[in-house]
Design goal:
- By secondary structure, this protein is an alpha+beta fold.
- It is built from three helices and three strands; from the N terminus they run H-E-E-E-H-H.
- It starts with 7 loop residues before the first helix and ends with a helix.
Length: about 100
């Protein structure tokens, strides 16, 4: 008997369910922003500060031209700990840096 291999249809359904389950997580993660130090310079990223299996979950968003030594104390720890912000919060932080 020819046709679909047993389990092949279930595998396709499993992939679809997994994709549907991950979409909200992806959308939430891509709407987050964080800051990090790169070579002594502050960099703003969009996404999450993780790289599971080497796959970066973020992209560089902005380089405000502020060095690590210019950072005000209230922002140093959140940058070092990769605190997550919304876009409007990240914009506000960018305005206050330095």
């Amino acid at each position: 008997m020819r046709g679909v291999r047993p389990g092949a249809a279930n595998a396709g359904a499993d992939v679809a369910v997994l994709a549907i389950a991950l979409i909200p997580a992806y959308l939430w993660g891509s709407s987050r922003y964080f800051f990090a130090f790169d070579g002594g310079e502050v960099v703003a990223y969009q996404g999450l500060p993780y790289a599971p299996l080497g796959f970066e979950l973020n992209r560089e968003w902005r380089r405000p031209g502020v060095t690590e030594s210019e950072i005000k104390d209230p922002y140093r720890e959140p940058i070092e700990n990769h605190k997550l912000y919304t876009e409007s919060q990240a914009e506000s932080v960018l305005g206050d840096l330095g």
